[in-house]
Q: What sequence folds into this?
């Protein structure tokens, strides 16, 4: 068994602190020292484990994953700092996967949204629009994500998006209407446009013109925070249970 020096006050042996001076010299003891003093064993330190934080899961694609940015510059990481600064004890889970569609979000829902998830932010659909996928499938997938989140007892926030101009005016108008329609039907908060104030601005996007740069990601975080903050404050307070 190894002993660890603790800085002059004792040794840690087998997890116990042996305090005081043991008076050991070589392998023996002088006969004139009197009765041998037994070392005083301090009780083991009590370790306290912090309770796990409630989770906010952001289901998204490359916009959420922070494509082209350092991880701590993605908008979910910026939201974590805002929550910490506001004294709201949540863990933000960045469940963004580059290239993911709304269908992909449905497929990975169960392993993305687990534990004490209080809030689910659904930020999917951009790749559906870029690929021109059928809008009835987008609506069905978003509906499934909302209902499955609610079934887990989580609050849901839906992040609206605008379809790319290449999709055509009819497709784009119908695309955007889906988010408003679902938010109204399920009575859930809507972020009108995740990329509001960022999309189409070269100085706020990377060279591909699609993914926000650091400054753009900060604005995306602000767009989300405006809707997230009141929901996070409400969800942080347990709802009183009716007395039997």
A:
């Amino acid at each position: 068994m190894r002993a660890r020096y603790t800085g002059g006050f004792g040794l840690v042996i087998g997890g116990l602190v042996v305090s005081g001076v043991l008076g050991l010299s070589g392998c023996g003891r002088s006969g004139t020292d009197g009765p041998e003093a037994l070392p005083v064993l301090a009780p083991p330190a009590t370790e306290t484990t912090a309770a796990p934080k409630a989770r906010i899961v952001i289901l998204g694609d490359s916009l959420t994953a922070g494509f082209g940015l350092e991880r701590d510059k993605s908008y979910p990481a910026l939201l974590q700092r805002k929550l910490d600064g506001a004294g709201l004890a949540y863990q933000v889970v960045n469940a963004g996967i580059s290239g993911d569609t709304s269908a992909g979000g449905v497929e990975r829902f169960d392993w993305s949204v687990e534990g004490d998830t209080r809030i689910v932010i659904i930020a999917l659909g951009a790749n559906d629009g870029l690929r021109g996928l059928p809008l009835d499938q987008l609506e069905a997938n978003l509906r499934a994500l909302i209902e499955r989140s609610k079934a887990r007892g989580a609050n849901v926030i839906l992040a609206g998006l605008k379809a790319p101009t290449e999709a055509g005016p009819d497709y784009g108008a119908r695309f955007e209407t889906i988010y408003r329609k679902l938010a109204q039907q399920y009575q859930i908060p809507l972020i009108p446009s995740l990329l509001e104030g960022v999309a189409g601005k070269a100085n706020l996007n990377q060279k591909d013109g699609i993914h926000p740069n650091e400054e753009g990601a900060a604005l995306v975080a602000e767009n989300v925070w405006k809707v997230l903050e009141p929901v996070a404050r409400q969800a942080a307070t347990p709802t009183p249970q009716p007395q039997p």
About this structure: The radius of gyration is 28 Å. The chain has two domains: 3-27+35-42, 54-236. Residues 1-41 have pLDDT under 50 and may be disordered. Helices lie at 62-65, 75-85, 102-107, 109-112, 126-131, 135-151, 169-186, 214-236.
